[in-house]
Amino acid sequence: MPKIPRDKSNDYSLEMAKTRRAFLTQKTGQSLQQVGHFSLQPESLPGNIENFIGVAQVPIGLAGPMLIDGLEANGEFYVPMATTEGTLVASYNRGMRLTNEAGGIKTTVIDDAMQRAPLFSFCDARAALAFGQWVTDNFEQIKAKAEETTSVGKLRDIEQYAVSKIRWLRFNYTCGDAAGQNMVSKATRHACQWILDQKIEGLDHFALSANLDTDKKHSFVNSLHTRGKRVVAEVVIPAALMKSIMHCTPEELYKQRQFSNMGAFMAGSVSNGAHFANGITAVFIACGQDVANVAESSAGYSFSEITADGDYYFSVTIPSLVVATYGGGTGLATQRECLETLGCYGKGGVNKFAEIVAATVLCGELSLGAAVVADEWVSSHDQYGRNRP
What Gene Ontology molecular function terms does this protein carry (predicted)? Predict the structure, then answer.
């Protein structure tokens, strides 16, 4: 069977990308002329891609300005959003105009943790219980072992979950400006090797991960206990401003919010929001995030009230926002440029970026909700989102 061409000594080069495109053209008969047009340097890609052939170009639009009063993000921001969905950028832009004129969005990162959750199985439940107590008693030694592998990651605590004779240990780390999945895997493995060396009585099986972490899928444990950043964005919209820009009243939008809550409950949805994933995905692609993390990052909570003055209080909470401003895809050329436009690239930028993402989500939720209430949803897509050959 013909193998994809590789060069063990220099696989990240223009020549090898061209060789692989020619190989694929030979096998499929399809030209890859557009895929082969790019500005990035292949030698910058080790650690980001294998068998490189070119790029998938996704258009980037600009929304803003978005005014934020955050713990880390302060001022006006223009948000790059990569998408092929017409109307999306326009909708978020409208929400940003509304919140800007309302005085801005308050943002707060309220928790930070990245996990690996190894499994330990025992001969019986009593041995598992004894192990759990041993872990509690020896936490400081486990922590020291885990942190031998990283200068950035810090083991915060270890949660324990027990079923039958099985015990999961959910290691919670802070990871600086990295998303941290690989960091915590290495640290947890190192700590667990030390645990195994202690000859724990009754232990008959160990696995570094068994789906309680949970990576790249929604889970209620992540929603309750945080994975990545837990961030809140909130705003108060004056009633007159809501009417003039969004063409609906706070009472009408609040009523629709309650119907949407019931619909989400009936459907068994993991989120009562309208479309968290739209804004998160568009910003993730533009800014070099691991896009598969949208699976957990987009499950969140919307909450609203009518204030005593008749204005509209609205917030979104994202409990599992997995983001980075250092490492991964953040250093690639176009992704770095987008992060730099937000003032978030590199060390010290991750909480600021998390706040910007949450504020962006809030703007999209307000805009879509108002479009449904004011019966502008279909007409706006007719105007901006139709792309027929």
Answer: hydroxymethylglutaryl-CoA reductase (NADPH) activity
